[in-house]
Amino acid sequence: MKKLFLIIGFLGLSPIFAQQNDIDITPQNSWLKAGLTASIPIGDANDISSFNLGLDLRAQYLFNPNFAIGLASGYSHFFGKDGFDDFGVIPAAGFARYYFTPSGLFLGADLGYGFLTNVDNNSGGLYVNPQIGYHNRDWNIYAFYQNTFAENDVYLQNVGVGVTYNIRFK
After folding, report:
1. Interatomic CA distance for residues 21 and 49, integer angstroms
2. Which pLDDT belongs to residue 35?
3. In angstroms, what CA-CA distances link 46 with 113, 132, 138, 154?
4. What is the architecture, at CATH level 2, of domain 2-20+33-168?
5. Which of 18, 133, 152, 157 could cysteine-pair with 43, CB 3.0–4.6 Å?
């Protein structure tokens, strides 16, 4: 079921790419985002982890002043507690964002696969990361809910805040 949602999500983005035959990458419509996240595990993850720190990496293409898509990755490190080892999630995801104004509120979501590190007998699963935040030309500050629906009914959920800096192509 989880793989079905993943396939549907990627197929849902394919018409967007098909409509753009000659994409022109410029500093005004494309850039990299790099930043940090901090969050608190909730649900099942709270039983085995006390805190989460992460790295957020993104490549974004802005179709028009309001709508962007891109690729997201990074690393989320869960600090183990009560005898549990630290572990992590490496997302490989696509994302979409809607910017209401050139500077102000945005809504976004990542959808992809979260690869687990330092976890035996579980490679990962469906990765979902909705966000709401504030942006300007250089910075994005946001709140997020992240869930990796890993194998064997393991749900790694956390809520937190993040900040990214826009690295523009020259």
Report:
1. 46
2. 98
3. 21, 23, 33, 12
4. Beta Barrel (2.40)
5. 157
